[in-house]
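ARCHIVE CARD
SHELF: 3
SLOT: left
DATA:
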Amino acid sequence: MLVSLPHQKRLDDFLHRLRQAGKQELGYPTAFDLDYSVLAEFLTVNLNNCGDPFMPMTYQVNSHEFEREAVAFFAELTRAPKEQWWGYVTNGSTEGNLYGLYLARELHPTGIVYFSQDSHYSVSKNLHFLNMRHIMIRSQENGEIDYDDLRETIRIRRDAPPIVFANIGTTMKEARDDVGRIRSILDELAIEQRYIHSDAALCGGYAAYLDPRPAWDFGDGADSISISGHKFFATPIPCGIVLAKRAHVERIGHSVAYIGSMDTTITGSRNGLTPLMLWYAISALGHAGMKRRLAQSLAIAAYAEEQFKRAGIAAWRNPAALTVIFPQPAGAVCNKWQLATANGISHVVCMPHVTRQQVDELLQDILASAVEVS
């Protein structure tokens, strides 16, 4: 299938613009360093992963076998209970978070969701979709949830099962809520009916490789976990992984004759290409490759923080974070480098593709704009 020369030129120009924009994208947690072009031939196949990836289905043009392997890798990474977990590849972490909250609602219909000020903006949207009662908890200065406020708020409403939405890498500050500490609070209050969802969209791809390892996964008390694939794993199509305890999932599944499978996911038809991409990245990199990319990213983040401070800019980051926060620079600088900005602060997310040269050029632009203003 071919398009006319003017249309082809438009496509070529668009691709060029995208590649140029990618060279100056520092504000969002999307990596660009992995090449998935080896999978291009699969664009000629209508891959559709409808239904439960662990169940047979009548439509056989799917990548369920690769999806199962990819999800199993993340189950190991998150210390999911052996043979007692379930998961699938989502359209992104918003869907994964929706799934976790949906399971929590079905398990605890009268529950109250507790989430912090720094939670992703989609959380409120998901809670509206699900019509769940909720209370926002204060955040600490570094973006982490205020555990004292959480404890007291749950204590005075202990007649309703608490559903705690934990952030493992907040949007602006990459703060990580301590799932183990949240579990301890619920233990102290002698609350048996509970649910903890771990929103690990940002950090879930590498949290298991950090030393010391943060408290964020099933081993620490999570009931479900959402992770992004297009962030640390650089998939060119947005996607994610959601994992949950099998017992919770079994409460919502039902058989669908049309597809000859179980309906246990949020959507019907699902992308069959993204599981293949995740499987490819996992197979090509392995644990050693993941650790290498993480070490590279942490080194660049440390470099950026140090260079900004040397230049007199009040930059900082949370422990072992890839996100460097600093005062909001001039609008032209934010636009050029596509810096995410909120409440007077901006940040750089040092994903594996970010280089020292890019950091240096950004710093030069910030200093030059400051001189122009003065």
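SLOT: right
DATA:
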Amino acid sequence: MVRKGLIAAAAIAALGVGAYFSRGALGDAIDAIASADPNWLWVSAVAFIGATVAAAGSWRCAVGLAGGDTGLIDACARYGAGSLVNTFVPFRAGDAVRLALFSKLVPHAKRVRATVGSFAALGAARALVLTALVGAGAIAGAVPLWPLAVLLGLVAVAAGAAYFARRHDSHGFLDAFRALAEDKEAAARLTAWMVASTVARYFAAAAVCASLGIRAAFAAAIIILPALDLAGLFPVTPGNAGLTSGAIAVALRAHGVSFHAGLAAGLAFHAVETAVGLLFGIMGAVWFAPAIKLRERLTSTA
């Protein structure tokens, strides 16, 4: 059942890469997925669920830096709504949905600026975590050094923003950076959530590779994550379909993995991640449905 569902999802994802890869490569990739170990695919699904919960937790911490407050389940629902939009709309429109939903938690008037600042602080924390991951990969000889320089540059910019923010006391974009500089516990919580999300996503990538019999799956996963972040800079397709699979295939090719096996890993990774995103998206829709009905009832009686 799991294998059939994954094959169907992978076939849909393959439509997004059909213009880039030969029919033979896609056919070989689908055949490889058909013979994948379903136990490892279940592991990857659980890891993706953990990564999504941790990512929602990091958004919860980030908006808390700007004065917002909510529970983890509510944060998962807001984050999941963005995942649902990202599945069907290109250019990561779901991030705008997340910003809109989380900004409603910020109490003061400049809530949009403050939430955008929180998102920037979140990106800085992610860059810090990826710096450690890419550094480990570079030491192991799995990834080049240039992404490390880029990530260190982003961390340096964030540190400069935090230093600058401590000298300004106005509400807005720099609230989150000032809070990070002044509240070490909040900074530690945000970083911990980002570490948990990145590690869970790493295990998901490794489990997908293991399901397809790719050698040194855990080393291969170190290569995949930076490639995915690079592909995420150009989200021109819904759910980044095609680019995600292609980025993984190219990255694994440098690891000595055959192209069709790398493409199979990319399609499987995208299919499982999309399925989990849809799960959280549906949860978000159900979670907010009672509030929508209540507003409609109040409007009709007014």
